[in-house]
Design a protein that fits this description.
The complex is a heterodimer of chains A (about 100) and B (about 525). Chain A is an all-alpha fold and about 100 residues long. Chain A contains six helices and no strands. Chain A starts with a helix and ends with a helix. Classes of the chains: A mainly alpha (about 100), B alpha+beta (about 525).
Chain lengths: ~100, ~525
């Protein structure tokens, strides 16, 4: 479950790192520094998800399967929500991140 | 080819996806439901207890042994299925009378008595359809499924090649843009589930590789049996009873021994060969903690308790790879969350096929709107018949399970006949009705059938939605809820296509009026 949330946050950051989607949410262009920061955070979260999987799973191969599955689940949740209500989709990240920090 | 690489790939993608598309849709729907086969099976046999008090492996073995004493005292082999991960509340036992056939019975874990549940094909039949289809000889079905899978693999690879902006459009999903939306949706569901789709298609082919490529075996081995005995070494079990009766050690002893030897803690099958004989052997099968399909088998002497063998160290490399691919395909190792994600990935694959088929029709009926082409018209009709018709037919299968009288001849076959009969009727209807009305009518029918199912279930059985929820048996409630959700989706589609058909009708009237004036 924590992995799903991590992957969700990861996708949100990666989407906002794209100028087109950033504009869709904040109605202005992102400064290049912000885009880079978002992209970095996104990939970092993605990697954190993998580490969490490998740590929790009983075996490496099982961890990898869980990571791929979590990426799929989180991506679907984010993209559908992002298409319907972009701001809510992004705002969901805040409780997700807080929850994650508390859990870790 | 003159047209350039990407164009030729696009051509290949279109046709390798379209031609087997309806078969692939059938395979994906039935296969995806297979991830919840145990749960649907239990729904289809309401005589079985609710999954409220799930027993331990020890309790299962105890009840199973007691039941087998009365059911099959002199059988060659007893099997007791001990896996309780799927919220299963009865114990499945099996026994060998002859060399091949296994008889099965469900046992109540508290009373150790046999449960008399209705005859049904269950979800097992539904799941078998994803590689055996139905009404067809086995080999023919294997070849149809194999060709469709190969075409799907080609469509996946070419799909990645022709998708120009796989990363830039990763998060793009636009609604209400006609053809553009269909393409977005098709891309989105495919890209999201791509790792799963490659895995499931490739491993699906691996399952039947000896059927599809028998020559490779024949050139290297004199006969197939040599190959299989090299890959799957024979287990050290005597071939017959000794004829000398002997006292066996209690199951608890073997469970303790097994746990100390294997780090895989999930016991799924307790086997007992030649019960009550000097040659008795106990075989413990553990589900691996990796995704490999074959269980780890540890064999003990049933009388002395002596450790005889563990098959894990003997497995050769190619076999491990094979086990891994098959295991990933079956997903039996998956816990509840992962199982749902497997199911979701299956649904995404199904959606990919459905949107692809719809896209083909949408694209062409727009381009040639003026010269209404028979081929495109037929494809459009069949899309509704297959894409909407199959889920309705499956709901019909569940309805038949509740409505056909218990105890009639060939009940199992009748259930399947209801399913395919209903599907045939929907298809015929789709072929004769005016094109604008098919989707609306079929969806209304789908919504009504799906919403009726929980009601019929409540009237005809004790395992209705409210009862399942109050017992906390969410696996069972999930079946009712999933069908209800399907009904709601059909309702939405019906409302949407009703608006659309009204719009089309008014535009026909206006164009007609314009032409007349």
């Amino acid at each position: 479950m924590t992995v799903l949330l991590t992957c969700y946050a990861s996708f949100a950051c990666l989407a906002l790192a794209m100028q087109r989607h950033y504009r869709g949410v904040f109605l202005q262009d992102a400064r290049p520094g912000i885009s880079r920061l978002l992209r970095g955070t996104g990939w970092l979260l993605c990697f954190t998800g993998l580490m969490l999987c490998l740590q929790q799973a009983e075996s490496c191969s099982l961890g990898l399967v869980q990571w791929f599955a979590a990426l799929t689940g989180a991506a679907v949740a984010f993209i559908v929500l992002f298409a319907v209500a972009p701001r809510i989709a992004v705002a969901m990240c805040v409780p997700v991140m807080v929850g994650l920090l508390l859990a870790l | 080819m003159k047209a350039g690489f990407r164009q030729s790939m696009a051509w290949l993608h279109t046709w390798s996806g379209l031609l087997p598309g309806w078969v692939l849709y059938f395979i994906f729907v039935t296969g995806t439901l297979g991830y919840f086969d145990d749960e649907i099976d239990r729904w289809m046999q309401p005589e079985r207890p609710v999954g409220e008090n799930v027993h331990s492996a020890e309790q299962a073995i105890e009840a199973g042994m007691a039941a087998l004493q009365t059911l099959a005292l002199n059988a060659e082999r007893w099997l007791i299925f001990t896996d309780t991960q799927r919220n299963r509340s009865d114990v499945l036992v099996g026994w060998h009378d002859g060399p091949v056939r296994i008889n099965y019975a469900q046992v109540d874990p508290t009373t150790a008595s046999k449960i008399e549940s209705r005859e049904t094909g269950g979800a097992q039949l539904l799941y078998q359809m994803h590689y055996l289809l139905h009404y067809l000889p086995r080999d023919l079905a294997y070849w149809i499924v194999g060709i469709a899978s190969m075409a799907m693999l080609i469509a996946l690879i070419t799909g990645v090649i022709i998708h120009k902006r796989i990363f830039r459009d990763f998060f793009t999903l636009r609604f209400r843009k006609g053809q553009r939306s269909w393409l977005d949706a098709h891309n989105m569901v495919s890209v999201m589930s791509l790792p799963f789709l490659f895995m499931i298609t490739y491993s699906g082919l691996v399952f039947l590789m000896f059927n599809y490529m028998p020559l490779i075996l024949q050139t290297n081995f004199d006969n197939q049996q040599d190959f299989f005995s090299e890959i799957y070494p024979r287990s050290e079990i005597p071939t017959a009873r000794s004829g000398e009766p002997a006292e066996m050690l209690p199951p608890g002893f073997f469970l303790e021994q097994g746990e100390s030897l294997a780090d895989d803690k999930r016991l799924v099958l307790y086997n007992l060969w030649y019960p009550g004989d000097r040659n008795a052997r106990v075989v413990l099968s553990y589900q691996r903690t990796t995704p490999e399909s074959n269980t780890r088998q540890i064999i003990f002497d049933g009388v002395t308790g002596e450790f005889i063998s563990d098959d894990l160290p003997k497995r050769v490399g190619p076999r491990k790879l094979n086990d891994l691919l098959l295991g990933l395909h079956e997903g039996l190792f998956a816990g509840p969350t992962l199982r749902w994600l497997y199911f979701l990935s299956g649904l995404l694959g199904t959606a990919m096929i459905a949107t692809g088929l719809a896209l083909w029709v949408v694209k062409r009926s727009r381009a040639g709107a003026t010269m209404s082409h028979t081929g495109i018209g037929f494809a459009g009709r069949m899309n509704v018949a297959v894409l909407a018709g199959l889920p309705i037919a499956i709901v019909g299968y569940l309805l038949a399970n509740r409505l056909l009288p218990v105890g009639i001849e060939n009940r199992m076959a009748m259930e399947a006949n209801v399913m395919f009969g209903l599907w045939l009727l929907i298809s015929l209807y789709a072929l004769i009705r005016p094109r604008d009305l098919i989707l609306r009518d079929v969806s209304i029918f789908g919504a009504l059938t799906s919403l009726a199912l929980p009601v019929v279930n409540a009237v005809t059985s004790q395992r209705h939605l409210a009862a399942s929820v109050s017992h906390g048996d969410w696996a069972l409630a999930g079946v009712d809820l999933a069908v209800l959700l399907t009904g709601l989706v059909f309702g939405l589609v019906a409302a949407h296509s009703h608006k659309r058909s009204v719009r089309v009708a008014t535009s026909h009237i206006t164009t007609g009026a314009l032409q007349r004036s």
